[in-house]
Amino acid sequence: MDDEDAVRIAVRRMLERRGAEVDAVADGREARAAMARSQYDLVFLDVNMPAGGAYDLLADARRRTPAPKIVVMSGYSESFTAKPGTLGDDGDAFLQKPFSLAQLDDALRTLFT
User: Fold this and answer.
1) Model confidence, pTM
2) Total Cβ atoms within 10 A of residue 61
3) Secondary structure letter of residue 85 according to DSSP
4) CATH domain 5-112 topology
5) Alpha carbon 6 to chain centroid distance?
6) Tens digits of per-residue pLDDT, 80-91?
């Protein structure tokens, strides 16, 4: 989920090249609707989004059964965006935008190995 078209398209392409099926949404409202109708193994959340960013959606995503892995993205540094109890839990990763394909691969390896 990212409100920037270029980021959303780039992440989608990166994941599809790795064989993932991807639903891309542009805001928090669309993300909530997508999570209500589908089960996801992995969710990307941008910190600052219209109609709800990562902090608003983390709890919703974690209540899913089974809970998806969550990658939080931001143009700000992790130290700037980190809030206690949100980014540091097991199973989460943080990517600072812009990020490379190698950084995405590292995050995926960390989450799924």
Assistant:
1) 0.81
2) 18
3) T
4) Rossmann fold (3.40.50)
5) 15
6) 455 544 444 434
